[in-house]
Amino acid sequence: ARTLGALGKRVDLRIGTAVDMSALASDAAYRAKAAGEFSSVTPENVMKWEAVEPQRGTYNWAPADELVDFAKENGQLVRGHTLVWHSQLPAWLNNGDFTADELREILHKHITDEVTHFKGKIWQWDVVNEAFNDDGTMRDSIWLQKLGPGYIVDAFRWAHQADPKATLFINDYNIEGVNAKSTALYKLVTQLRKEHVPVHGVGIQGHLDVQYSAPHDIATNMKRFDDLGLETAITEADVRIPMPADNTELEAQAEAYDVLLRGCLLTEHCTDFTVWGFTDKYSWVPGVFTGEGAANILDENYKAKAAYNAMSQDL
Ligand code: XIL
């Protein structure tokens, strides 16, 4: 059977996965699947701020460089993830007592140095991640608190200056359907486009749970972003299940993946569909959502689940 990556190429869609660098190093089966099944990759953690600059002024690019090399060897594009976020910040930054001017300069330097380091090697950057609350207000992050909402405009301008050819995304979760959060994001990007801020895409994470209904209005939501001239992508798809997973839940999971993928396929400029890990053997879900798991498209033994087959059929 053809791989998801190969099937996606026929319709100009990259099919990606988040990559766990320790699994890539230690597990040959994982490495083979990551190399063969997908046409794009996203570092699950190693491009985040705490990973690249654990001590102030001391950069550690090696793990991320390794993924970029892996992608090149395998003809894959790289989604850079992520430059501005409230989470996984280095301790020196979280605990530092910086003035607004200092913090602005720290952010400018971070974005400039990281985007410059990977210049020409990153297809799409998640420049700003999770800037909104579910009610559509802006998340009360260190960035909003100290710099005000203008940090978003600055971040996109700085990233664009450092690598004018990269496609720049704003990324968030719970924005699959039309709701308060996706509408707030829609209003923001409408305004940014008007002001010629270099934002080029909207990333929809796609972390779903079989306990809640799948976002059947996803294509309607994605179309309004597409109509603004923006690219879209599903950037972190997974569908968690209360454990143990039974057959009905695995079918519901397959349907949820199908809803996400069809949303993308129905949207003209949806350029990438990335799963947040591809095997239940390695997943962030059990560590974060108590009692839930089995969120991926292959089981712990790399055997295709109904979700994999649903994706394959859609493509
Ligand atoms: C998660 C990783 O999967 C975990 O390994 C890490 O411990 C925490 O972050 N939204 C995002 C991702 O944008 O970066 C998060 O990744 C999952 C939620």
Give a verbal description of the structure.
The chain has helices at residues 4-9, 21-26, 28-37, 49-52, 62-73, 91-95, 100-117, 142-147, 151-162, 180-194, 218-227, 247-265, 285-288, 306-314, and strands at residues 14-19, 40-43, 77-84, 124-129, 167-172, 201-204, 207-209, 231-242, 270-275, 292-293. It is of the alpha/beta class and 315 residues long. Strands 1-2-3-4-5-6-8-9 form an eight-stranded parallel barrel, surrounded by five helices. Strand 7 (207-209), helix 11 and strand 8 form a beta-alpha-beta unit. Helix 7 runs parallel beside helix 9 and helix 11 packs parallel to helix 12. The radius of gyration is 19 Å and the shape is globular. Residues 44-45, 129, 205, 236, 284 line the site of (3S,4R)-3-hydroxy-2-oxopiperidin-4-yl beta-D-xylopyranoside.
Helical region count? 14
Helical content stands at: 40-55%
CATH topology: TIM Barrel
The largest beta-sheet arranges its strands as: 1-2-3-4-5-6-8-9
Low-confidence spans: none
Strand content: 15-25%
- The helix-and-strand class reads alpha/beta
Which CATH first-tier class would you pick?
Alpha Beta
Mean pLDDT: 98
Order of helices and strands: HEHHEHHEHHEHHEHEEHEHEHEH
The largest pleated sheet is described as: 8 strands, parallel, barrel
**Structural shape:** globular
